[in-house]
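Why show two proteins at once? Because comparison is the fastest way to build intuition. When a single record is shown, students tend to memorize it. When two are placed side by side, the eye starts asking what differs. So, the first record is below.
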Amino acid sequence: MQSLYDVPAPAKLNLFLHIIGRRPDGYHLLQSVFTLIDWADTLHFEVRPDGQISREDLTSTLPADDLIIQAARALQRATQCPMGAHMGIAKSIPAQAGMGGGSSDAASTLLALNRLWRLNLSLESLQAIGLRLGADVPFFLGGRNAWVEGIGERMTPVEVPAAQFLVVKPETGLNTAMIFSDPNLKRDSEPAIISGFAAHALGNVFSYGRNDLQAVAQKLCPGVTQALEWLTLQGLTGRMTGSGSAVFAPVHADRVNDDWAGLQRPASISQVKACAGLDSHPLLGWANSEGRILV
């Protein structure tokens, strides 16, 4: 195998996000449910026999040393693989949106190159590499909607009802570090339990909890508030995903065919997209627990 084309890297939404504490090293302890959606980037991979790692931006221009490059180099270092790769990326997921686009790209890169280079690393090994790249990367490697704890490394698969979402991205993005360093950030939410979330699913799972980052994000980025207000005008109840700036709302079945993108909206909103929730990652099974364990 010398190439892999049209490799998907889907986005995620945080159905809720609670901050329940902070570690001595400054990392925040969170609880959240991550759910995959069908808004995705697309990646292409070709083997380079010279060991070099290169990238071609097919849509928007990315930073020179983005997570795709970092993931490829990290996998190469961890395995001493002599092969390289040329990678093409067609970005669709907006940056600084709280949708995990960069982390998802990194995860799909690890999965694709693990196959292309015939490394046969296990999922656990790839997740160990991925965690060093970013806290969200192991989730995308795991491939299942999940209850997420710790700094993002502890995951338990959960069932999320089939749903359609309207995702709204303000023109302005948000820097995650700025939000987490804000002195007004709520860091003392009461710990939740999975059974509480599951019991809530009998009613409306999408109204469970809140996003503790949202208040700070709205202070830093007025576009978040304007996007939430626009959703309210459409009769929808919105919430920010991750550290923002994107917000989302579940859409009732009788409105999934509405022309959301054609509705008038303020200039502060750059994108409106109807998305479907995914039961699992399209690359689920590309690595498994039977592979060689990296220590």
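Second record. Ask yourself what differs from the first in the token line.
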Amino acid sequence: MQDSTLLKRAGLAALFIVAVLALLVWGLGIDTIKARQVDLLYLGQQHLTLVFWSMLFALAVGIPSGILLSRPFARRWAEYVMQIFNVGNTLPPLAVLALAMVVIGIGDRPAIVALFLASLLPIVRNTYSGLCAVPASLIEAANGIGMTKGQRLRQVEIPNAWPVILSGIRIATAINVGTAPLAFLIGASSYGELIFPGIYLNDFPTLILGAAATALFALILDMLLAGLGRIVSPHTAA
């Protein structure tokens, strides 16, 4: 039953993406898209590289940090520490990119650092909130059957907090994909190479192509993460 539901949702998602692509082809014309085919593929790879590495680092730092802050001894300091992780969201994305450029230089590395900072807070916050929201009765039951703290975390707390953690990852991914085009301004390749020249040159088709590619990229990644959530936790994943 769960498999059939997942297949139906995947089919609807694929149908929606095809409909959006068809609308894009109808609006811009197949010749415009063919002329930009190489750019779309190359910039898509570059965009994916920025998102992949920045999200990988954000997950590697954010999830362990959220787990640590959710422990009883650290909860009193959690909100203060959270402000450190909030630096990427408090400052405007362009300011974060500019600061990263000043410290590291131009190119992919400062862009990855800036995207990492922008993606960090939702992961830390949702990991912390999800673990803190695990019912006390489950914790007591785990303690009652003799689980160690590590076993309780792996087998009870994280599985119950997973839907909330996944929501944070999805939010962070959407922020990351939407911010990545700005990396063009500091010398990193992304779909910003279509969006910003389209703005400067008043080239409407190129602008729309870059913006639509970014939006579709974000939509596809979000659908993949939602599908992953349903596979890993079919009864609770959103």
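One difference worth noting in the second protein: The first helix runs from residue 2 to 28.
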